[in-house]
Amino acid sequence: MLPLGPPDRHHSPYKARSAFAAWPGLLAHPRAPASAPEIAWFREHEAYWIGDWERFAGRGAVADQVRFQREWDDLRRYCSDRGIRLYGDVAIYVAAGSADHRAHPELFQEGHVAGAPPDAYSASGQLWGNPLYDWPALRRRGYRWWVERMRRTLELFDVARIDHFRGFVAYWAVPSGARSAARGRWRRGPGRALFAALERSLGSLPLVAEDLGVITPAVERLREQLGLPGMLVLQFGFDPGDPGSPHRLENHASDRFVYTGTHDHDTLRGWYSSLDGARRDAVDRALRERGLAGRQPWWGLIRLAFSSRARVAMVQAQDVLGLGIEARMNAPGRASGNWRWQMRPGALTPALARQLREATEEAGRLP
């Protein structure tokens, strides 16, 4: 699942107005009553952050969180009774001017903002603009803010992906006011110390490291030291010029979660239809070799992902539904028009459930 926080004006959950509060727009019953005892309990149980959020969001903010907690707890019970675990997402950064940024300015740097360096896809890099953490200031406070954030995350989810994991080893700092990320430079992150603080307070961490992109040996070492699975993306595995790619099916490692695509990628159907000749030939060949060629290449690719050695295989709902580019969730670098796809009620039919179960059983991935 994407982050649950209240999104920004472009609907992005990665620039949420709170790293702790959930978005009331997700509620099935936004006007359900919230009793005084429920509100009092929630204030006590979530004392670290709820006051900051109430001052930021105004009257009714606590009642909204009570309603969300009530509905979410029902969802957790429903899933648990059926052997389903919820997999969340922790955005590494908070949004500028968010409740957390305003309430804890001492935990953030001044003069630099977040981004990513220039690469083969962008000569100017990516200018995200999020506030950067003042890691020495957080260390002096025992990383309390991060401990409480992770505590809240693990109250909501059984396991969580931690976004931009390489940023904990080194992060790209861009001068405030710069028009692109090209003028940034690498700065050292907290490394193992942050995760040690989390483990001391919370115990074993059920996390997955988002380690896509150009990953250094130091990032790999930290992930391995922490025992965290990394990520693979099936769509990345068909470059004829990169036979050593970790995303190629034959190179998959078991300590990974493999995705058909993430929220930042096209759907399988949209991606397949846009492939050039060489890559499409590579895809078709891989499907034929495994007896998966057919009229619906996206289902062949789902089955291909399920055949991976990776510990867990993740499939976007859009891929199960066979939707095209119109259902893409996000196109990085495009400021508007993202984060809008919603699954219609009834879209997941019993026939699709049977097809998904058949593919899961065929791959030996049923419990």
Describe this structure in words.
This protein is α/β, with parallel strands linked by helices and 367 residues long. It has one domain (85-362): Glycosidases (TIM Barrel, Alpha-Beta Barrel). It has 13 helices and ten strands. The protein has helices spanning 36-45, 47-57, 61-81, 99-103, 135-140, 144-156, 192-202, 217-226, 268-273, 277-289, 297-306, 317-320, 350-362, and strands at residues 87-90, 108-116, 126-133, 159-162, 170-175, 185-188, 207-209, 230-233, 256-259, 312-314. Strands 3-2-5-6 form a four-stranded antiparallel sheet. The protein has a three-stranded parallel sheet with strand order 1-4-7, covered by helices on one side. The longest helix has 21 residues, at 61-81. The model has no long low-confidence stretch (mean pLDDT 96).
Key terms:
single chain, 367 residues, alpha/beta, TIM Barrel, 13 helices
How much helix is in the residues? Answer: 25-40%
In the predicted model, the low-confidence regions spanning at least 5 consecutive residues are none
Report the count of strand segments. Answer: 10
Could you say which structural class the secondary elements and strand pairing correspond to?
alpha/beta
What does the radius of gyration come to?
A: 21 Å
- Amino- and carboxy-terminal Cα gap: 21 Å
Shape: globular
How would you characterize the largest beta sheet? 4 strands, antiparallel
Share of β-strand residues: 5-15%
Number of helices: 13
**Can you tell me the number of structural domains?**
1
**Second CATH tier, the architecture:** Alpha-Beta Barrel
How are the strands of the largest sheet arranged?
3-2-5-6
Q: What fold name stands as the CATH topology? A: TIM Barrel
> What are the secondary-structure elements, in order, as H or E?
HHHEHEEHHEEEHEHEEHHHEHH
Overall pLDDT confidence: 96
The CATH superfamily name is: Glycosidases
Task: Please report the first level of CATH classification, the CATH class.
Answer: Alpha Beta
